[in-house]
Hints:
By secondary structure, the protein is of the alpha/beta class. Helix content is 37%, strand content 16%. It has helices at residues 17-30, 38-51, 62-72, 88-95, 114-120, 140-150, 201-211, 232-263, 298-307, 338-346, 358-365, and strands at residues 7-8, 55-59, 78-81, 99-102, 125-129, 153-157, 165-166, 169-170, 177-181, 194-198, 215-217, 220-221, 269-270, 278-279, 285-289, 310-311, 347-350. Helix 3 (62-72) crosses helix 4 (88-95). The site of ligand T4K has 23 residues, from helix 3 and helix 4.
Amino acid sequence: xxxKKPITVASPLxxxxxxxxxxxxxxxxxxxxxxxxxxxxxLEEALCDYLKVPYLSLFTxxxxxxLCALKALDISGEVITTPYSFVxxxxxxxxxxxxxVFADISPDDCNIDPARIREAISPKTRGILPVNIYGxxxxxxxxxxxxxxxxxxVIYDAAHVFGVEVNGESLxxxxxxxxxxxxxxxxxxxxxxxxxxxxxxxxxxxIDSLRNYGFASETEVLFPGINGKMDEVRAAYGLLALKxxxxxxxxxxxVFRQYRQALYSVRGVSFPEEKEGVxxxxxxxxxxxxKDTFKMTRDELYVKMKEEGILCRRxxxxxxxxxxxxxxxxxxxxxxxxxxxxxxxSVICLPMHHDLTEEDVERVLSYFx
Length: 369
Ligand code: T4K
């Protein structure tokens, strides 16, 4: 029997190779391959338009963008964050010499719970680093209120938020700064890439300087910067891929609806409800498996599907707080993070991307019939 092709959890949105070649020829002709070239400039402008944000700085990846965002705000001390994320969220704090303080999440959206942020505030708290996990909006209004009351800075790890809007406004406009990832597995990618969204020109200037070793001019270095620059080849790729982003999101929506409709009434399977006023872009399709009522445990399901070529991922298991760099922090104790532990132990992300066929979706759903 012919082996069926594997179905991966993600698949990169690739621009047409044919259309890419003239862009490459132009780069070769210009011999300007990095450090603020014309494709880079064009992509920053195109992304501002597409995402409805005022200022955006491209980066070589989301992790470097997070580091620069923390540096741009000059934060020190403790930063309250979620344990339920990709490990880069906590690593960015650690690399910046900041102390992560982990607060539990809400069961309805897997995002940091504002009530638990309040409890975690200490005299050393200087900032909050929430994540809009899976592209689900965190409770931004409450988080802003807390930040104002306690004079804290807010940086959103918005790695999953490409194109997400709340009541017509980009979710990327929340907080002091918001950081996108444009890596291969995201709704839209620049192969590797990232971006910081900010609210004013002066801050963009600071971020752009931090991205380029801290240079303000050929002879002036104002900040301890880093090399976070995106090159011209990836910027050109990004410009082309952006043309297909809207249709790729529509295809994701079709899959999302098929999954939702089929899984809604399956015993032992649940997933976060869609919220009013939110335009989602369907970065992930996480479901929670109740081991007592579903026919198998989450891990049994994961292994069975994997053996049969359906490569789901258990994002975000294990919890960040279970890894050695963080598991000795007082806030990492299991009793402090009961919801995050429960969700991490029951989550599985089904394949979700623009390339899934009807047959792929049927194959995935057959495990829940
Ligand atoms: N904050 C959050 C909340 C994040 O989720 C991330 C990254 C960051 C910060 C940091 O941003 P970056 O520095 O990465 O820009 C992936 C991604 O590499 C990572 O970007 C992402 N989050 C994380 C959630 O997932 P892996 O190691 O789980 O993915 P990987 O490479 O195993 O790929 C998953 C599947 O995607 C593969 O099985 C097949 C498919 N795939 C992947 C690649 C790379 C392809 O079909 N083609 C490809 O080229 O980390």
